[in-house]
Specification:
Number of helices: 11
Radius of gyration: 23 Å
Number of strands: 14
CATH superfamily of the largest domain: P-loop containing nucleotide triphosphate hydrolases
Helix content: 25-40%
Structural class: alpha/beta
Largest sheet: 6 strands, mixed
Order of helices and strands: EEEEHEHEHHHEHEHEEHEHEEHEH
Shape: elongated
Strand order of the largest sheet: 6-7-8-4-9-10
Length: 300
């Protein structure tokens, strides 16, 4: 299996505090990797280290299987926080500036990128008059200058209206499917992220607390029984021996059972007859946002 990014124990310390703490991720080539976490969780700092905008305190980074980071970073396009857009210039003029800065000889790339990100019809309109969605697409076009193999985007849908979100989502899916780009992006809009991502990482207070594929998320978010008891450890042992091993125990002690869903009354009776008080037992179904909140529930 070939990886676009691998980190091992990647750490960044600011003023004695670990903004990123021993984070190890593996992002396969061709993936859309959704990076999830609250504000201040360490997402942007992690991305900055990948792009060479911040120096790690310790740990290692490999990009496309290589330790030659300066060389491999030429294959990265990124928007970290807000890249400079010249407000008095048109979309084409903005891209022309970056074409010259990057030493790209062909002027055709500017027209190709403007058309690809859907800004080919804006004419002489200045960037200061763009909608937020248009500005986001221009920033992505800037990141694509140089034909990268890996795109790193920090909150590309932040502040967009539903139409702008759809436009950016469709653009990223096209980049992944048509051009084969590997994409690492962070987003707070988890429902939209779940429409794109092929795998996920959840970071909290600088620590990677979970990493899973879209297929694994689908399994975790299927129909279930959610059970709240006074003794989760005893209930876990009882369920494993008498009912099923197909369940999870969330950080807050809630048990989530994925089979025998039509036997809720029997499961309740089993727990109560064994001295376990059941305060809630109800059918449930999760999406990415609910799963994320469950993971955060035991970390606050």
């Amino acid at each position: 299996m070939e990886y676009a990014v691998q980190t091992r124990d990647l750490t960044k310390v600011f003023a004695g505090r670990s903004a990123v703490n021993r984070v190890s991720v593996s992002i396969r080539q061709g993936d859309i990797y959704g990076f999830i976490g609250e504000n201040g969780a360490g997402k942007t700092t992690f991305m900055r280290m990948l792009c060479g905008l911040a120096r790690p305190t310790r740990g290692t980074i490999q990009i496309f299987g290589s330790d030659e980071l300066e060389k491999q970073r030429r294959r990265i396009g990124c928007t970290i926080e807000s890249p400079a857009i010249y407000p008095a210039l048109t979309a084409e003029e903005n891209l022309e500036v970056y074409r010259i800065l990057l030493g790209i000889s062909s002027k055709e790339v500017v027209l190709q990128l403007v058309g690809f990100v859907g800004l080919g019809n804006v004419g002489k309109k200045k960037a200061r008059d763009f909608s937020l969605g248009m500005k986001q697409r221009l920033m992505i076009a800037i990141a694509l200058m140089g034909s990268p193999d890996l795109l790193i985007l920090d909150e590309p849908m932040n502040g967009l209206d539903p139409m702008g979100i759809k436009e950016v989502r469709d653009l990223l899916l096209a980049l992944n499917k048509e051009k084969g780009l590997t994409i690492l992006l962070s987003s707070h809009i988890l429902d939209e992220l779940s429409r794109m991502a092929t795998c996920y990482g959840i970071i909290h207070e600088g620590n990677l607390i979970d990493e899973f594929s879209a297929e694994a998320l689908e399994q975790r978010c299927r129909n279930n029984l959610r059970i709240v008891v006074d003794d989760p450890h005893k209930a876990k042992e009882l369920l494993a021996t008498a009912v099923s091993s197909n369940f999870d125990v969330l950080p807050d002690g809630v048990l989530v059972v994925y089979d025998h869903l039509d036997e809720a009354a029997a499961i309740n009776q089993l727990l109560v007859s064994n001295g376990i008080a059941v305060s809630a037992l109800a059918p449930g179904e999760q999406n990415l946002e609910a799963y994320f909140m469950d993971k955060m529930g035991g970390k606050r």
